[in-house]
Amino acid sequence: MTTNTSVGPVRSPQPLLRERPGLLSVVLPAFNEALNLVVLLPELNRVMADQAEQLELLVVDDGSSDDTALVVQSLIQQGLPLRLLRLSRNFGKEAALCAGLDTADGDVVLIMDADGQHPIATALQMIDEWRHGFDVVYGVQKGRSETQSLARRSCTRLFYWLIHHGSRINMPPNAGDFRLLDRRVVLALRTLPERARYMKGLFAWVGFKAHAIEYVPHSREHGVSSYGLLQLLSFALVGLTAFTKMPLRLVSVLGLLVSVLSLVFGAWVVLEKTLFGQPVSGFTTLAASITFLAGVQLLCLGIIAEYLGRVFDEVKHRPIYLLQDLTPPMSGGGGEQGEGGT
């Protein structure tokens, strides 16, 4: 006798949660953030202490001229799990991030701004997503585009269009440096040799399993942002020249288009003279043509010069940053110590 047994749908097994990290490193690049760090660091220590077996707050002093280093040293004496990494001068936020990632010993590394605008509650969500299996968890600033001018939004769209159509990486808009990285992602980033660093692109380039979390930034309590329009434009040029050759391809297309138009215009002038007896236009046409072609040539040379400048920076092999001072590592670090930029 045969018995029919109905079998229900087979459910995929739920992924096992990761254990809480042995060492959680929080990297905070700081440039003149003494007043903000006084408030932020004790709060981070209070909230993050039970998220790992051991906590490491790593402040990277990027050549500050205020009391940033003194504040951190004072909090170290009070018993906070702090490390201070002082650069020999101001190398910029990208270099400070690299210094922090090279130094951090954590099984998990959380990157936050030192101005207090990144919500700690969102950082806790990132740790939870890491425990669910994601290697990279990054913050996406909610409503950022609505607060920007039309010109800036247009430039931002052009930038991402060039990146997405000229390279094979997926760089999410409105995502910055606020992110959590698994240890193996940090080790992968340390292997990248380039000097002109655009960290947002490098985070996307290394890949791994990633997840986005939206957040609303807090208002800045002290100080002002050091990123102005010129700094952002310079930053965008570094990103374009580091991750896409699309501007060079557009230069080639522009050169081909100008050549075709010149041939068409020359043929039209010959036909006018031959068939209709029209006199060839004089100085005005010639001056306009020369000015237009000179502008196109200078534009093309400028774009080529940007790429050539990146090559010039790379072949010198200068370090990304230089250390002035570094406090000892926390005991029981979760991974091997990375090489510094010196």
How many helix segments?
10
* Unreliable stretches covering 5 or more consecutive residues: 1-13, 332-339
Mean pLDDT: 76
Derived structural class: alpha/beta
Describe the structure.
- The protein is an alpha/beta fold.
- The chain has ten helices and eight strands.
- An eight-stranded mixed beta sheet has the order 7-5-6-4-1-2-3-8, sandwiched between helices.
- It starts with 22 loop residues before the first strand and ends in a 16-residue tail after the last strand.
List keywords for this structure.
342 residues, alpha/beta, 8-stranded mixed beta sheet, 10 helices, disordered N terminus
Summarize the model shown:
The protein is α/β, with parallel strands linked by helices. The chain has ten helices and eight strands. Helix 1 (34-48) runs parallel beside helix 2 and helix 5 (150-166) packs parallel to helix 8 (229-243).
